Amino acid sequence: MQSRRTALKAILFAGVTGPVLVVNFPAAAQAATSLKEAYKGDFLIGAAINEAQITGKDARGDAIVEAQFNSISPENALKWEHVHPLPGKYDFVIPDQYVAFGEKNGMFIVGHTLVWHNQVPDWVFHDDKGDLLARDALLARMRDHIHTVVGRYKGRIQSWDVVNEALNEDGSLRQSLWYKIIGEDYIAKAFEYAHEADPQVQLTYNDYSLENAAKRNGAIALVTKLQAEGVPIMSVGLQGHDGLDWPTVEQQDATIAAFAKLGVKVVISELDIDVLPKATKEQTADVTLNIAQNPALNPYPNGLPDSVQQQLAKRYADLFGVFLKHRDAVTRVTFWGVTDADSWRNDWPVKGRTAYPLLFDRAGQPKPAYEAVIKVASR
Ligand code: 9MR
After folding, report:
1. Ligand 1 centroid – CA 116 distance (Å)
2. 294 pLDDT band (50/70/90 cuts)?
3. CATH number of the domain at 2-377, please?
């Protein structure tokens, strides 16, 4: 924002001192500002980065991340199966590079995620004989994992998604193995262990579709209960795997307001907007879905028609309008990927589609949606 105003002032001033050059602002100059600059003072702007970006193989992606974002999330690198693949065996090669990348660029570094029912190896829940562990044994494993991973990056990772996707669509607790073996206090325990490991770090409960009333109410009940028990939960992550017509602006607004009222911060943690035909009836981000490919489900294999680009741009603008309205509660908006080519949406819930959910196209160029998001900030 600042840089746009400064640029504008410079042009006006030039008009006073010399012959006025009526500059027809080229696209590149309009995009001279960045997402992070545009929203400075409002909230952080983040991107989830993949292994190629973490390791520097994707130099083009890295350049976009460095220019545009002031926060990073690890798309997969810190999930249990990657960082702790076998009992007693931790692998920090990629996570160390992830954190170093963020530090080199002075970014707000997010950890994702400690306790989830996906991307967690089977051995975690079983003993040597293959039987399910008892509560205390699983709690001990969870504590070891959290202390080892959070402890390693103490003071370097600023925020952890402690528990991910613990709720069903009706707002009840998901019957995961965490829940079945430990009981419902597995969530409180995970937060306590994370807080012990790094008392300064921001701790988040992260989930999708909390904009739907039933699930949102479940999350509100969960957060309220944790707060009553003195559990150190500081923020709620609304993943934001959105569509062109879901959630409505009203749902988004009401959801952020509801969590803000509880006194927790709100993070938009995994934002992307799907423009492809819906392959499921329900609004979900359940990663286990795999629906058969068919051409009707993949209508834009060679590029997005301008009319849809414009729809996407308007949709992004509408949602950012809501985020800005709640700038006191919203501390960060993170996109789930850098360019459309990176997005998990290309392979979910149907494999091999051509998806367009982000602000940068497959060539790394800003889309009309990028300009629209920047424009909202210059209100
Ligand atoms: O984007 C991630 C994708 O590369 C992985 O294959 C997938 C597997 O579980 O997880 C994706 O990220 C998910 C995130 O960790 C939690 N919320 C839903 C995200 C999209 O599935």
Report:
1. 11
2. confident
3. 3.20.20.80
